[in-house]
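Reproducibility note. Readers wishing to regenerate the assembly model reported in the main text can use the exact inputs given here. Chain order matters: entities are listed in the order in which they were concatenated for prediction.
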Amino acid sequence: MKIKINNKECVFDKGDTLIQIADRNGIHIPRFCYHDKLSIAANCRMCLIEQAGANKPQPACSTPAIEDQEYFTNSDLALDSQKNTMEFLLINHPLDCPVCDQGGMCELQDLALMHGRVKSRYKEDKRVVVDHNIGPLIKTNMTRCIHCTRCVRYGEEIAGIKEFGSIGRGETMEIRTYLTSAINSPMSGNMIDICPVGALNASPSHMKGRTWELEKVKFISNHDCVGSNMDIHVLENKVFRVVPHENNKINEIWLSDRDRFSYEALDHNERVKKPTAKINGRHTEVEWDQAFEIIKNNLDSINSNDVSGLISANSTIEEQYLFQKWLREMDINNIDYRVSQNDFRYQTEEPFPKIDIPIDDIENMDSILLIDSNITYEQPILSHKLRKLFLKNAKINSIHTYNYTYNFDLENSILINPNFLVDILIDFVEYLSITSNRKFDIPAEIRKKFKGNAKKSVQEIAKNLLAKKNSLILLGSSLVSHPDYQLLKILTNMISIMANSSKGYLVENCNVAGAWLTGCMPNTTKKISKDKNSRFNVLEAINNKLDSYIIYNLEFIDFYHYKELKKSLDNAKFVLGFQSFVTEEEKSFYDVILPLATAFESPGTFVNIENEWQSFAQGCKPYYMSKEGWKILTKLRLQNGASIDNSVDYIDVLNEVDSVVRNQKFNMEEKYNNLVIEKKLNTGSLTRFGGIDSYYIDNIVRRADSLNKVNSKKNFISVNKKTLEANNIDITKNKLIVRQNDNTLLVELIIDENVSDNSVYIINSNKEYYELGKRYQPIKIENV
Amino acid sequence: MKDKDLYNIPSEACTKINEWLLKFPDGEKKPAIIYALHLIQKENKYIKSKHVDALANLLNLKKIDVYEVASFYSMFELEKVGKHTISVCTNVSCMLKGSDEILAYLERKLKIKVGTSSDEYFLKDERECLAACCGAPMMQVDHRYYENLTKEKVDKIIRDIENEK
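Running the prediction on these inputs yields the following structure tokens for the assembly.
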């Protein structure tokens, strides 16, 4: 079908609106309320255009094209209507562009220049709106609002949590939240981007710089395994703000708040400024060369089998590659990245942490099974994809240990105690072995566990997976610390094979795939360089109390075995840290600390869960004396006499990683030999569980001020009523004492029926919880 | 949240709301908001935040959804008002027949300004045409129409209300 716009012939499909056709053909139509990701509101009237023969102008955003009609976007009628609309919009809009953050990137400013009058004819008083505090991330200035309702529709349709609404009507209409409630969505920052005026601004960068002074560098998100694309805006060598970079395969035009506001941590007062070394028991600032010399002397004097190198899965693949190479060149093979992991069975066959289908393919699924995944807060971008699915009527099911808040509705859900997660997955395998027509050789070990009475809810979910052609099973990222993690992966894999589903192992860090590929783990058959002997993984390295530990970009609380680690470090002769941040307490454990540039300050590559390699350039120069990881590691290798060119550049490192790692064909098949199904988690009593707060997951986010103000409530635990009564807790008081081994903590009690029986839900959001004890361990609750 | 801040929608009202919902397609909860707010306002004179909370909970909607509706329509009162609501029509017909004087008289008599409320009376401002032009000037007291008003008639209406107590 064809129409003519401005005498240009345009092709369209039935139902296309005029603005869509014009956009496709590069014809400019001004708009405020229309946004291609949102529903049509047609309330700003800026997009009025002329239809030949019609006696009044039509809004292009909501008018479907009619075949063989002629439309004009630049006729007198169209231009006149647009000019009049503009004049009305500007009546109440303040002329404060010089002090408005949006100035320079403002849609209203741009369109006023093109379609506005030179001078206002309005002499009367303008409307003023009182601002309300809606949280630490978004700064409102509602007098500037032009009531396009993009933010209201965004909340309702994209974020799935309607928080803004239009209150009142006519001249007194306001966009605001209910009473004084704050914005709580993990993707709220996107409202700042879609706001066409300066009504919603980013609070952390409010009034701190102007748009035209900024430099833009493309960057990859470093707080979840999705790898969202973003642009960092740099002002005077500091990250000024972060905005999404459109990538329709991953994050579309959205960005989670965590990725958007984490940069605030970069000049936190716990940043390491200079290399320091412990001289006569006291930390003293030293020069880089001096630090390198101390490192060499100490490592030379220690048996290489007694050294362990532990690297963060949030570091770039270049750093991970060079780190293991540096250590292996010194014959140090106790290298690991799985610091939050607790289960190391079948580690020789550690599966590649990935999702079977590309991220944008999630939108084409018909059925989803989530296994204990708090996906809306942990991977907001993936959750957005699931929400899209939900709106397309796909069925989303969940087995969880807590009724997490999702931005979609669940079809079936099973709430279960973390102790029985393995059992319920075995029920699945059993039920599928009867109903599925896909042949799969179930190991006798698992067959032995069959009970022959799968719950109705299990049957429902299994049927749902079987009935749909495209289904996906996602294993939650907080399960990494589950004592049966490996077993859960094996069972998930089996279910996915029998139900003919795709599967994904979600992980907490942004570059777990990179660490796997570069072989930053011992005892595995799947890595680039083979170790001669079996080596210590992180758990063994901690338990064996080695002489020396090298800790790269990790804080102690990143370790599942937090306390044991501290004891081992205390015992060690030489502890070396490559750190961007260090607390006073942690400092005392280190012998040498090298200041490390964060990912924002270094070029690098992250590999996300779909095995997509995404490189980024250096955003800004490293903080104070700190250096990029690849530079430090190259220097250390040079010092050890590695045969590399002295003038090695980042690009050489990237090329090396590319040729050694990327082009290597790994065996991605999941196969487990000598399967022994033995459940490790069985506390038999009250169990502590719960993942890490989404704003506490890594050393950067932990220090981002504004993000950490979003949930002001930190010290609480959730238990359901039945469990409280069984433990004789006085529920009239809202405080209680929790006890793990000899440690106690006074916390606020929240009676929460979203928790399963016989378990205590703790969101790990501050250090006291780590001091208390570990997740998935017995816990006691007592009256105050 | 303390117990006194909670409000339970009476069960008769719930039944009525559910009956009302049957008239709309499955899963559509929003059409019941106006109807339910009417029921709540009738019982409580004005709508407090706890009512909004309770209704949002009942209909499984966001509080802001309910609040948007409540704040949009002038028939819903969100601030505390007196027992009796008086609206004097001030549209063209009534104005020509002297509604301004009636309104001024009421303001003096009840000792409240238009748009404000005492414990007893709430004098609503800017009531649009109530379709009783043939009896102008007119006013509405608690949903009852009084037409062809004079000062004496207003005195009598107020006296009657007070005698009713």
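We highlight two features of this model. The mean pLDDT of chain B is 88. The longest strand of chain B covers residues 121-127.
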